Amino acid sequence: MQLNRPLLGVNFFAGDVVGGIGPYLAIYLLTLQHWSPGAIGVALAAGSLATVAMQAPAGAIIDTVTWKRTLLIGCALAIAVSTLSILAFNDTAAVYVAQILIGSASAFLGPLMAALTLGIVGHAHFTRQMSSNQAWNHAGNMIAAALALILALTWSALGVFWLVAAMAFGMIICALMIDRHSIDHDLARGGIDEEVSGDAKPESILSLFEDRRLVVFAVCIFLFHFANAAMLPLVSQKLSAQSDAEHGIAFTAACVIAAQLVMIVMALFCGKKADVWGRKPLFLIAFLVLPIRGLLFSQFDSAYALVAVQALDGVANGIFAILFLLILADITNGSGRFNLAQGVLAMLVGIGASLSNIAAEYVVQFTSYSVAFGFLAGIAAIGLILFYFFMEETLEHTPAEVPEAPRS
């Protein structure tokens, strides 16, 4: 199978766009706008809550529309404009409006890229294309973080806002290179198993949740992101509290580079092993890393030590980014609801991330960074235990057993 290059390009530029400016925004608000930690947590949560509100509708829309490429372009453009508006208007209202618009657009981007991938290459080659997509995504994130570091130290801490906008335009150019006729829109929503359903209509989302695996997985990914989402913003603030905005941005960029480098390795590793080992063993590794990372963050104050510990994020999120979609594709195969299920579960991810930012920032405000990291590590440990004891393996066959030709 030949990899789809425009999809690789979209994913290369998408990492910095989908991730947004959250950690950098926290530093900007703390050091240049002098916001309190609690207020920063609310601002970060505004974007996450907007994503939460839009995730399920986004999934339903993506399952339905046949203009997925145009929708992808529109969302990337909205993020670019919203990011620059924070600098252009420079007030509280602009931050909240921009975060809400960025969060709403981000709700579409992840499911859109997964749907386009499934619709172009099919189930048989989904693992390989997705692992390559993620490797390119992490490479783009790493290069963007390196550029952010250079911009912060040589020009301005605000350069990262312009960088996100530039990456969004790169994403748009690559999206235009995708042949819209190569997309099978039925396949892009997971396909419909007429032998099971008796007709060509997709299943309802409620019928999907009759599958115990999906319920357990939903609870576990909620806990995963509750534990994970606030860690990088907290590290960013911990680093910048002892320096200025420029050095805070630079150290945060170094954290991102360290994690993304590991994520590239993990993406390729998962692409080779996910169909051999199964999904559960790999996802357990991701869960195991989270409490370890939280506890290590609570023990160190050195900038270099914190950057080194952040590299562990590459293991956890590198695995999660691929396994989330593979497990979901396994569970929803033949239902016609791949993207709606993505949206619903991503909504839970967003709720977990929002609560993570709010709770952790207030723990810091009333106690300390060490206590906040310990709190997040405890949440991660609960998720690990639940996943180990209650989640079943979802891989039922290897790609070789699925006679499905890739689409070019």
Fold and architecture overview:
This protein is an all-alpha fold and 408 residues long. The protein has one domain: Growth Hormone, Chain: A (Up-down Bundle), CATH 1.20.1250.20. 80% of the residues lie in helices and 0% in strands. The chain is built from 18 helices and no strands. The chain has helices at 5-19, 22-32, 37-64, 68-89, 92-121, 126-154, 159-176, 185-188, 194-197, 205-208, 212-228, 231-240, 245-277, 279-299, 303-310, 312-332, 338-366, 369-390. The protein is globular. The chain starts with a helix and ends in an 18-residue tail after the last helix.
Amino- and carboxy-terminal Cα gap: 10 Å
Number of helices: 18
Number of domains: 1
- Quick one: biggest sheet? none
Form type: globular
Which regions have little confidence, pLDDT < 50, spanning 5+ residues? Answer: 193-198, 398-408
Task: Name some characteristics of this structure.
single chain; 408 residues; mainly alpha; Growth Hormone, Chain: A; 80% helix
Secondary structure elements and pairings:
Elements: H1 5-19, H2 22-32, H3 37-64, H4 68-89, H5 92-121, H6 126-154, H7 159-176, H8 185-188, H9 194-197, H10 205-208, H11 212-228, H12 231-240, H13 245-277, H14 279-299, H15 303-310, H16 312-332, H17 338-366, H18 369-390
Helix pairs in contact: 1-5, 1-6, 1-7, 2-3, 2-12, 2-13, 3-5, 3-17, 4-5, 4-7, 5-17, 6-7, 6-13, 6-16, 11-17, 11-18, 12-13, 13-14, 13-15, 13-16, 14-16, 14-18, 17-18
